[in-house]
Amino acid sequence: MMSSKYNKRANNRGFEESRPIEARAGVIKKADGSAMFRIGKTTAYAAVYGPRELHPKHLQDPKTGVLRCNYNMLPFSAEERVRPGPSRRSKEISMVTEKALLPVVNLEDYPNAVVDVFIELTETDAGSRCAGICAASMALADAGITMKDMVSSVSVGVIDHQIVVDLDGEEEHITDMDVADIPLAMVPSTEEITLLQMDGKVGKEELLKALEVAKPVLKRIAELQRKALKEKYKG
User: β-strands 113-123, 66-73: how paired?
Assistant: First the structure.
């Protein structure tokens, strides 16, 4: 690895350390399943409705169900006001969220049905799609949807050749050094990567190293997700 000018993070956070995390299940009473996932100053709520009959009927598949994800940043969630309603970005994140979750959801158990996942970001400071995936994965489990495992998600970054886990908003906007932001999602039991995106430039070796650095953090996030679900069903 090349030496880096980026040698200290805010709040003395370690390079391989995420921001503080809070996870809770069953937070929205009228949903079939729900969860809240907070990482640093980014907060995602997910609500699951279904499985229910898919309409219109010509979209139904007698062999399997359909997973639909809807990602939305609330207008007051960011410093700059977000325009209400679907945007190109929210549609893209909805699609990658679906793809990140599909490998663990047994949709064959729900022929002709749809499972809807609504993700709302109430507060954002980097890593919003990752927080949304974590909340959605928990909400699906809370709804009793048959799943092979959780999906955990975090972004890993490379700032002037220094690998850092879970960039915050300040790090994303550094202008005097090269910054790459790599959102990841993983199935913890198999280490299958279900989301890999990149904003910025990074070499192959750095990318592979970044993936390895992220794995223990993703497994820790999965433990926190499972713990939150167990807490809900304790009583």
Answer: parallel
Q: Which two tokens stand for residue 233?
A: 């069903």
- Residue 167 belongs to some domain of the structure: yes
Nearest-5° angle of CA 197, CA 221, CA 160? Answer: 45
The answer as to whether 93 is a domain residue is: yes
Q: Is residue 4 a part of any domain in this protein?
A: no
0.90 surpassed by pTM: yes
pLDDT in tens, 91-149: 999 999 999 999 999 999 999 999 999 999 998 888 999 999 999 999 999 999 999 99
Residue 192's domain is classified under what CATH number?
3.30.230.70
Q: Is residue 142 included in any domain, yes or no?
A: yes
Per 3-state DSSP, what percentage of the chain is helix, strand, and coil (rounded to 5)? 30, 30, 35
| Structural domain containing residue 57 | 10-234
Torsion of CA 225, 227, 229, 230, to 10 degrees: 160
Summarised one tens digit per residue, pLDDT across range 165-186 is: 999 989 888 888 889 999 999 9
Beta strand extents in the chain (DSSP E only): 21-25, 33-39, 42-53, 66-73, 113-123, 152-159, 162-165, 179-187, 192-196
